[in-house]
## 1
Amino acid sequence: MKQLFILLFLASTLFAQEYVVEKVKGKVLVQKGTSEKWETVQVGDKLNGDDLLVTGENSMVQLNKNGNRFVLDDNSALGLNYIKKISINDLLLALAMEEIRNVPKIKKSKEVKSTAVYGAEVSPENETAVLENTLGVKKLNGAKKLAENGYKESSVILAKETYRKYPGTRKRIADRIYFADILADLGLYQEAASEYASIKNEQMTDEQRALLEKRIEEVNLKLVH
Amino acid sequence: MRKDFTILILIMLLSTITYSQISYDVYGNFTPSGKINFRLNSLESNPGNYSLTKDWEFAISFNTLFARQYSTNLFFVSLGKRINNHYMYARYSPGILKEFKFTASKSNIDDSLTVFETDLMYKEKFGLGYSYNFTQNLSAGVSFRYFQQEFSEEFPSFIAGTDPQVLIKEKEIVKKHFWKADFGINYSLSKNLKINFSTLNLILFGQNYQNEEESDFEIKKNVFDLRTVKNGVFGITYSPAEFLTVNTQTETNGSFTLDLGGHFKFVNKEFTIGLTALHDKYQQPFIAGIVPVLNIANQFYSVTLSGIKYFSNRLSPRRVSDFKRIGIANIVNNYFSSDAAFLTVNFALSFQPEKYVKILDVQILSEIYPTLADIYLSQPFARGKIVNLSDKKITVKPFSFISEVNKEEVQSPVVEVMPHDTVEVDFYTIIDEKFTLKRRKIESVDFFVKTGNSEPDDAIQKPILVNDENSWDGNVRHLKYFVEHDFNFANQYAKAILKNAYDSLVNVKPVLKKFYKIKILFDSFVKNMQYVADRRASVENVQFPSETIELKGGDCDDLSVSFSAVLESIGIQTAFVDYKPVGNNIGHVNLLINTGLKPGQAGLITSNDKKIFIRKNTDGKEEIWIPLEVTSLSGFETAWKLGAEKFYKNAVENFGLAKGNVEIIDVF
């Protein structure tokens, strides 16, 4: 599937400003803010930065914002607030949030102990409803297109977010190497090395493993020097 | 009548301890090393009244003179008292006196001789001293000494109208007295190096006489008066090692002393052995004499044996002309003092046990919030600065007692303090479980430090604000203490609601039961609940969960605390989300709640991934947490949506978590 993502305003920064839908082809849906509803996108609709656009097979949507146009091609998903240039520092902050967000392993305060028991009621694994990974894959596609059009930092953040919320996408080794490569391209060798290391334990083809080893060697050389 | 008088000098040392030049002291010139807190000098070498005395000190001194006559006399008694930085000293010294007698004879007509005596008596009766410690290292003070001179001179007289003329002796008596005032300053440059400066004969006052230069009687002239030339003394005391002290005092007239003192401890007593060499402008040879000193001290008493040995012959008669020319600048030690050996014993008694540690200050670090009691076990509420006054390493036990709050003294961790070192010491406290306070109140807190097991070495009292039990210090981390306050109540409350919702829950898939419990509990919790802002007050207040539920109202802190307690009481993990005030945005608190769902199960509860937040638990497993705006009282779905919007925008999209503008604080 060929995806095309055209950005005509590489240098502009777009926050929660209004987008106008100029062209729609096929099935294009939008999820506004924190709404649970999916709405069909039609020409003339106005979209905000916190809206999520999703395109189906053989679909596309063209948006216009202050005279700047872009096209989101098929099988992609993108929160419009990701279409922005962010600094390396903000990217590092976003990566730092990975640890901050977790439950502390060592309780900072030992003086208070809860008497509550954090137990989970046992539920068979087969009862769990797995969230559609398709949306996760579409989000990765959207992230890759962001990177191809110069929004490398945003693309890494989106990819990380996707891997977290859609665990099934973590198995897509080629994509993971792709986004780890972006970190290396940005000069974030330590972060890239960490990412490559986390991929290493996944199942992959011999070709992918060879590529991964090569990348690890390259980034280690950069770190040494 | 023969007019030629043959004058001989007979110097009789009636009662004296030998002083050398003006500033020489009976103890030699060694200064207390810091190991000895008694005053081992008097006003002669220490006009600045410097002392390490801690409280009351009484001293009595006797002297024994082994000269031409053997006699034992009370030399002086003194009383010293320290009140904080002030030190006062008074001395009565009946033994500081010296008498000189000159005899002359006159031939009578029958060739018999009549002897005429001139008697010179010098006394120093009283001494007073005052000093002030400006800092631990700087002391300055003044001293006043009262002197008396009693001179008598016999002269021949003839009885009128007798033939041959009858010669009789008559006596002229002159009494004089005056005060001397001097100033001194002592400064410790370091633990090993001290300097001092003092004046000698700075001010004379209260004199009751005028010398009569033209008088027929020499005792009325100034030739025999105590010399009171103004001088200054500069001294240095250096301790190259703990056991050794070198001291030198140099007067501006050229006289000096050089002292070497050794210190050691034996059978719990401090021993000092000193030897002082004297160079006196008015005495020969260059080193006129030496003064050996032995001092034995503990914290209760001090005994000093001292003596002086001159290197010139002091027993031969001296000429009156020499006496007139040289004079005496010091009553008891001068050019005419006998070569003598003597024994001096000093006793000094302190009426309080020695204090090893002093509190310099205590700073209150935080008010007392009774509900946050546990934080005071790990976080000091006050920090003091203490100094080790002794020469040894000590172990200090800090204590505090907050009236009304503590049932008994609370001991904080002990600290070890090196000799003369100053350290900080933290005070922790334990708030009595039964302590309740409905209104804020200022209480007093007693801080004290002990080095032994009985009486404190030092104590200080400070006021402290004790808040009521609903007061909160504004730190979101501390809201958990309000959560746990009503755990039993919250548990009963939650169970009652879930019991009523049994039918709704029974058919829910097990994996979703926790999520639906959250939903059911919240919908019930907010029923008839109202948002009520805090009252205007200087301190923030937080209601306990039972109060919020019973009052059916509260602000974001109250509602977050209360609903967190409800969930935590039945084992559902919660965390406060602390939105810190940034720019014009005011601070806010709401909740993150662990649904227990795995990331891949998010589709069971939402189709919008902005409404979930993935966190790894302590086992490294990822779970779905949901933000809940507890002040949204219109139901679970709205509260979740509003909570998610705020959380996603502030914590995730704007990197609030990484920038510190948003903080997730796990309740337990």
## 2
Amino acid sequence: MAAAVGLTVRIETPENVRLSYQLAGPALRSAAYGIDYLVRGLLMFLLIMGSCVLATILPGLTMGGILLALFFIEWLYYIVQEGFWSGTTIGKWIVGVRVVHTSGAPLTFWGAVLRNLLRVADMLPIAMIFEDVAWIGILPLYGPGLIAMVMTSRFQRLGDIAAHTMVVQVHPVVLPVEPMILDHIAPIPRGESNGFAPSQSQLSTIRQFLGRRSRLTYQRGHQLSAELANVVAERMEFTGDRENVRRFPMAFLARVCATFHRPGDEAEPAGQGRVR
Amino acid sequence: MNRARFLARRRPVWKSFETMLAGVEGGVARRLSASEAFLFSRHLRELAHDLELIRTRDWGLDLEEYLNRLLSRGHDYYHASRTGTWRVVGEFLLVDFPRVFRQWWIYQLVAAVLFFGPLAIGWALIQNEPSLASRVMPQEALDQYDMMYADVEESDDPDDAGGSMFDTWNEYGNERASMAGFYVQHNVGIALQSFGRGILLGIGTIYTLLFNGIAIGATAGYVLSLGHGDRFLSFVISHGSFELTALVIAGAAGMVIGDAFLHPGEHSRWSALQRRGKDAGQLAVGAAFMLMVAALIEAFWSPAPIPAEYKFIVGGCLWLVVALYLGWAGRRAA
């Protein structure tokens, strides 16, 4: 069912648990990088501001401290955060992505070290390779990283490949509520549905669509559900008012759901051979 | 079991797992008691079972997504690696790093040749023919060396242009502290960069090794040709032990990963890279530690106003220490 090209990665853990993750693409990752960049700049700025007082007394020591801090911000910002904070940094946390190993295991310390030390190779400006083509210089960063991301199936930059890591999206965990109250919707009479019963997956598709209908505009919802309603009506050789289906596809879908949802739940779905 | 009954029965378990997870992920109490850990692992297995059930019966993608997210979070917590302690750091420095160093000795050898070879050639050529120096190094740098060694009273840092920034110093320690920061930021940065760029077939690494070898050799040759041999050598011998060795190690680490593409052996190129990745990263981190030691020596000991003979003795001992450390540390634990 899942397309070959997509953001979903399926993993089987050693305990035979199948987990799926949503990969984070270059756009999300650039956003996280941008935020981290700002945070690093801000840290540096605050440090320099804060050390102004000290600089009047001990200029050399302050200078050394600032250079040392520069080193830490440059090289250890990512390693420390990702290594000790399960693959997130401030930017990644805000954007909602994090680093995991491709096996699904949480990021290890050495994984964080490797993927972030190799960042310098990923960051090489494209401009360094094509120096004579001036406008490519506009693309400032992550030339090799972007190329590697496009070429791998899991959006891995070079550091990710070497360290067996990938960046996945983090979603809040919310227990889904039942999408609607079906008690007041009139079920489709048996005669009009010709004994057709949709499969569980068809029903759950309908349920999900109805559950999300509040997020769509009316026109878009109508447009999308028209297709679905039409297919369902065709399948069941619906003998009721087809015009109504065309005009109120969402209502028709809700009726389908009301008709088959609860009875379908009561019965044992496995071993039920009457599809169509 | 139908969907409604299943949901009614399992939902409390999921909820309690969720709160348990939120508690341990909060970071305040990361440890579970024995009975809690037992419950946690049981819930984890039950959740995996629930997820499979929902998948096979097609009980809704949103439910599947919910359990998948919950389970992956639990899985993450359950399998999180132990956070490092000081003991781990000590073990790495005293056992793991020297061992990894010896394991990839052939790369260390190649890196050493690529670094010390041009260094020796540059040194020998330029000491005999100082006019060649201007072909390798910018004239300003040479002028700076002339100036630095012109007045014999002051012992400044001969191999580093940044030293002249602080010409109005009167407090020795204060000045030195700033140089320590500079050496860490500059030298460790160069080493880590040369490692990181190694992944591009090792070209960046080899360039860094050759470039630094030539530059250091030329500097040494030029300064010695001016007749300041004692002062220069007594300055560089101490920290050179850690610094030059670490540069070579970082270069070797870069070549270890770069060579994974060229000679992957019986693996695919990518998997060869992945198999070598951790070792190479450990080499680079070890080299970074060594460079920090070198930075401290270079900032506080090397320029100290102490007779050259003592510096030669201490410096020689430091070379011996580095050799013993890389050659023998961690052997007994094997």
